[in-house]
Amino acid sequence: MSLLKVRWRAPPIHTVSKCHSFVTWSPVQQLEECTLKAFQKAAFDCALPAQLPRKTFESFPALTKWFHGSERKFHTSYLRQFGDPLVPIELTSLLSDDSSLGTAIRFERAEAPFSIFLLWSEQADASTSQRLYVAQTPVAKLPEPLRDDIPTPGLVARAGKGDIYDVNIWLGVAPTYTPLHRDPNPNLYLQLAGRKCMRLLEPDAGLSVYSALQTITESAASGKFRGEEMMKGVERSLLEKKIWADEAAGDNTEAVGFEAVLGPGDSLFIPPGWWHSVKSVGEGCTGSVYSTSCEATAMVLIESAGQLVV
Predict the structure, then answer these.
(1) What is the pLDDT of residue 12?
(2) Is 280 helix (H, G, I), strand (E, B) or coil?
(3) Which terminal CB of the chain, N or C, has fewer other CB atoms within 10 Å?
């Protein structure tokens, strides 16, 4: 993997200290029906997160074409055909995890051929110190056969005036992690492979948590989207501890959040402005798709129960 060492310039080392969570987590509601009326009433109209029935996406092509086997490994013999295009790749290196100093992390983004990630994924496991993550890669920039494997769900295709803000893919090998952040538009999250736990806070509660940490770090970041400042240094570590350090939750609870554990074929509606953080669960390959609509009005998800509109 010597090629990787010349693609990224090493940024400064950041050290961080401990922080604890004071949030209690309740399960995200799971919709038993996938009718338009049920979705609007339980999730969209009241702007609440909701997990959709698994059957909604069970025929999604990428579920079986991009991954294979009982361990859901990358189907590299298929994906290698499309290894030349450049994709955004994140490199994260854990330099130390000294409990007295905190965690030191190097983080950098760059574009590299998709084949570089596939080669790394065949050798990587949970103990690999250099982590690669295909993060926030627009489906529109993928070769046409791969785009066809990710059809735009009806939740996005028929939102508002039918405009689509973005559809992105995320591919990695556990452990993977996305810090607490918010998106201004409604999202539909679909898990393709592996398992991930997502934790969500409603807009005011999330802003309170994030603002408190900004005071500590003296950061001017807004928390919108997945900024680079969230991925390294003090802000990354404090955000992670605040949301994921469960041992400190209890009588001193500051907020109530929601949690969903998603496996292949599971999907989650995230209302606009809701703060969320994501961690992989277990080992192996992970893959997911974010579909985002431009407008938060007049969404149409399903025309009839069990029938996905694409």
Answers:
(1) 36
(2) strand
(3) N
